[in-house]
Request: fold
Amino acid sequence: MAPRFYRLAETGRKVVNLTLDGQPVAALEGDTLMVALLSAHGHLRRSEFGDGPRAGFCLMGACQDCWVWTEDGERLRSCSTAVSDGLNIRTNPPEVSWSDVL
Amino acid sequence: MVGRALNTLKVVIIGAGPAGVRAAQTLVAAGVRPTVIDEGRRAGGQIYRRQPDNFTRSPETLYGTEASRAQGIHDTFDGLVDQIDYLPETLVWNISDGRVFAVSEKRETTIEYDALIICSGATDRLMPVKGWDMAGVYSLGGSQVALKSQAVSIGQRVIFMGTGPLLYLVASQYLKAGAGVVAVLDTSSFIKRVVAAPKLMSAPDALINGLKFTLALKAAGVPVLTGIRPLEITGDADSGVSGLIFETGAGERHEIKGDAVAMGYHLRPETQLADLTRCEFAFDEKSHLWYPKVDEDGRATTANVYLAGDGARILGARAAEVSGKLTALACLKDAGVSVSDNEIMALRQDMAGWKRFAAGLREAFPWPAEQAAKLPDETVVCRCEAITAGELRRTVNAMGAKEANRAKAFSRVGMGRCQGRYCALAGAEIIAAAAGIPVSEAGRLRGQAPVKPLPICIEDDEAAAAISTVRELTK
Reply:
């Protein structure tokens, strides 16, 4: 899927390496996790209520639509989490969600 | 609070945007050491949000005509850091019995206060449209954050839709930064702007800036349409947004293509924290917003609670600076400090000017309440849990829930993880239209703690100490 965000400036920063659902993602130092992921990918997670992929909405910590998960199961609000080297992110929560059982 | 030595007076300020920073500065100047709690990583608030340290764009690039004001706020705050207790990246999730409950990372802290100044700011005000739950739709404020603090565009071909000054500001910022701007579609008709012009003249430079943004967009060949009604954001669930269908003022239907939509209808105040202090609210007929009651200087109806900035009244960033200062002076006065009445009078006068300007904006860019009744039943109202307008209407019609909290309990609209921030105002309009009552009678959703989701495992200070003791013992 095509990326959702496009970089317009500040592209000379140091590269930070992440993993998204097992695939390598090259981010830049100073990126939020949301910007890093959406500069490489079209969405962040799937709605638990069945209306498709989500890619965040407010970017200011109010809507909670940009959640992603670490392999350890920790939930991160990606719009307000800074990237760090070696982060291993998944777009699905490790536990069972409503959409899996309904 | 009266008679307390100033250096023992415990004042907590929530929020480090323009209002919070000016409140802190005023208190420090009087000899108080306030605690400033802010959810942001760096002070400045949303409007003057700072880019990360390793970014190099100039303040002029970031803040345009407001560069010197942004820098003024940043410099003031940086100069205060040693004279305040500053808790960045900290969320206040509850207020109860004279205490503020906050969480940072996974650690909880409780802070007692003698006086509380809440500067909680605003978020975008949204009216749903069919398809707005697809990937690629962002709030206008969020679209601006993407550009300002991260130097990215939300898409390659962005459609700007809604109303309010932010619509033109963000679209022109995107254009200037080299992003693709497909169109600017305003639900307000142009004539309203002409009628509101005398009030907008209260801040002539802001009015002129607004006109310049519009002219720059038109000069670049961007279609700028007024008086439109959005019908549907098109696309498919897997790849997200592909365009927008709208109706012109003349009733013609058009479809435009784009891979992102930035939408918003001016702003709404963040009032959950004020609500938790149990202060009284009143409905403002003109804006269709519920505001906490405040006196001329920002005192809430709850003792020792003060409200400043857009969280108290949507008056904009410059007014927020004035009201931050004014509420801090009110707080000092209530603590028995002698403050200059002339200064208070002058600040009140400034506020009167901003209130007039804000009234002009409200009239020029009205909240399109009438859209709520026309939303197709399949339109998602609650983005958090994908609950539709039809479901909410059934709650009203079949279950008789004509009050917002009751309708929330039945339908879950407003119960999701955003806690009604993005659905409650439109939800109330839908309820009112379905019930045939004025929206004021549908009421407002009560604020509930926690005001935002908390991490599942929070350690408090005692628990952390116990854990470290156990670790020491088992070494």
Chain A has a mean pLDDT of 91. Chain A touches chain B through 42 residues (CB under 8 Å). Residues 33-38 of chain A form the longest helix (6 residues).
